[in-house]
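re: ur question from earlier - yeah i can do the single chain one, its not a big deal. heres the input i used so u can compare w yours
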Amino acid sequence: MILSLFRRDRRGDTISALYGMIVAQARLPCFYRDYAVPDTVNGRFDLIVLHLALALGRLMPDAELKALGQGVFDQFCVDMDSNLREMGISDVKVAKEMRRMGEAYYGRARAYDAALAASDGGQGLVEALSRNIYSGAPPDTAVVRRLAAYMQEAVVGLRTQPSADLAAGTIGFPDPGAIPPRQDKS
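and the output i got, formated as tokens:
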């Protein structure tokens, strides 16, 4: 019985690996340098949410990966709770902030899903990114269009990733530096 405390949890390792890859992708300097995402607590949170939404958009519809997707989301919640406490947020305020973060995640995920599914040439996605990543004031539309192109490429790539690879704890995103800058069409 006591030995069970020392056994490795393979599912937990897989969840941690997937979540770690999501966070690592969101922290790539290219997003803050070339895509002009604000290098702030909110900017970093928004990029984690963006990548989490992309990943869960692949994991959750797959019956074999749905529990894994839920585990990744739960890991996100644990991570955000821990970060709030590290930043000195009081125990009383943590619950309120976690609720706010959950609402932010679900609102953004719905907006991104709807925009990615729309047949409007990506305009809805550009608007959603302008509103969420750039707080309604993007540096220029070309940057937002480039981020939209990155997301669209990520969705295509995630769809083609084998379920077995995802179940083994490997998720891949495109190289954001390889997405060519877009011409401003405004």
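The chain has one domain: 10-170. not sure if urs matches, ping me
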